Structures
1.
Amino acid sequence: MAPRSPRKVLIFGEFPVQALPAPKGLASLTGSTCTWLLALARAWEAQQEIDLHWAVFAKGISTKVEIRNWGQTFHVLPTASRFRMRGFYGEDRKTLADLVRAVDPEVVHGWGSEDIYGWAAALSGRPHLVSVQGILRNYVRQAALFHPKVYLLAFLEKYLFRRAQVLTVENLWGERQIRRFAPGANIRILEYGIQNFFFSTPWNPQTPSAAIFVGTIDRNKGIADLVEAFRSAELAGHELWVVGTGGRFAQKLQASAPGAVKWLGRLSPEETAQTMARATCLALPTRKETSPNVVKEARAIGIPVLTTAHGGQAAYLADGEDGYLLVPGDVRKTCRALVQILKNPSRAKDFGKKGHQRYGENFRAVKTANGIFSIYRELAARTLP
């Protein structure tokens, strides 16, 4: 007999609330860029098996907002604009604990160790799972110059991973990293899917060819390596498109960048897909990742990928066959790889096609949705009669 489904599940995570219809009296809501959570919610739109509730904190609201959309309930919760970590998110933990009592779910699901959501699930007193978004201990080991709270959360992360009843992570690379400090963790490998329109966006690279970078503009993403590479005469006539925003580092980099670098700012996911489809390759010479969505999106569209082995994204690339592995800080190697792709359209086409065939279908959000439901049923069996 198949395990029974829970009647109700409560999910904690940085849901991109700007995708939800704003209730009366609010012009809009502003939230994260965790598009994989949006893809997951949309994949559950037709299901009627479980009463799904989401909880997310949002700044700029003074009282709880409840929104019903896609057959699911979204609890948008107020939080302090400053000093949220005081008492280890004391106020936020109380808010989420109160919501658990009010909703009364059989299963609680927390997303990520970067905020309170994963911890709130692990401390809920209910059967629970924690989905890993980024492995902070690996970030601070491989890169530098993070906000002090990241170092604190990275220190605590191992205790979260040891405490969680079930962990999900996106690939074998991520599982290996977690087992370094939580060897007994109950880990399930489950790819987090992307939005469907990336699969239906045809690749149509423009001439002259261009590379695209998508992500936060900070030094740990390796964007400075790309900017420096495009100073080379070997890449004359080609462009680098940068999609994303950043702080002071981004402003300084933009001010000193050559004219071949085009700064496009933040785009919507749909605009990002259309822009990626006109590029010849994705370039992401990152120093820290776990499984960046943009690499999955590139594979779904079918464009070649240039990235590093500093993260799980290397699992979606065969070096020299459907993309190139870069070395962070090695501008010369980055430049050579860009030349090999941007100046050779037939190679770019071959690389893109192979990458799409090998990996693209792995990232369907419906697969993620089905995999998570299977874990919900397993956990619910611990409480249902």
Note: The longest helix spans residues 148-163.
2.
Amino acid sequence: MPAEPARELAGISPAGLREQAAELRERLLAATARVLDSGWYVLGREVEGFEREFAAWTGAAHAVGVASGSDALELALRACGVAAGDEVIVPANALPTAFGVAASGARVRFADVRAEDLQIDPADVAGLIGPRTRAVVAVHLYGHPADLGALGAVLDRSSVAVIEDCAQAHGASAGGTPVGLTGDAAAWSFYPTKNLGAYGDGGAVTTADPELAARVRRLRAYGEQERYLSVEYGVNSRLDELQAAFLREKLTHLDGWIAARRRVAAIYDELLADCGVVRPPLLAGVEHARHLYPVQVPDRDRVFARLRDQGLPVAIHYPRGAHQQPCFSDRWERPLPVTEQLARSLLSLPMHSYLADDDARRIAAAVAAAVRRA
């Protein structure tokens, strides 16, 4: 007799973190011992090694490790000259990004996104650019690259900086160019659930500009040009040695993990066709990082509740636009219809590199059944 759906689905790991730690356990313990034996715990050889190896993996000339993805965005903006009184344009469907921008001292301005790729809409950005605009943050949300070509055309011959938010896009590319190589700088997150995640918080800034990289290095450590000589106002945002050691071990597995995510996405793509679900867009020439698998469904909240009742770890990214958050209420200038429609309809399915093919098929079947009942 077949098991109840709830029993079948309840054991599916939300993020695969336990499975990943089990696979890497011996290497992680060895990395821990290496750090403990060194007696050096902040900004040492492990951080230097990770920065060098991550820069090589991304194709960037420079990588600077910091304490979190939000800090990476804040410090990248500040290194580009963003300060209080400046304006920075961000997509309204990327809530964490708005906080990183606000931390830089700039005023956040929210742009709508395009239905065709769920990314920042360059045409909407064009209407927001003003004399105080200092930067635009292009968020490669869910793992799909933003349209940097169209955004560049809008910003042509302006001094507006472009910062790529690559927090969800490790391994993504467009037209053969990896994310993180087109803008003035890129901010990366190593939050545990990212494609490359630490066992705690962590982040990095990558750039081709050696002066910008040097400034991020100063800003992450009290603005110090040398020990106890602070030449500008900085912060304490240092990637610690233990997290860097873990990330070095995990970086060697990253390409395989991304390939596994793409295999899961292919199963979802096949089984969710023609069942009332709008699958994640994938534009021509794009390699998707498959950090998340967000689908659009009718009566999303009812479908969400039915799937959660079955023990299926679905999630919502995000239930409201950043411009609709109470803390940003003074910056809600106008309706942003695409962002607001997506907030009502998007549902994220389980997505990680340890999700078994059979589990992916069961999830797709459960989603299709829940949508038919909606």
Note: DSSP finds 13 helices and 14 strands in the chain.
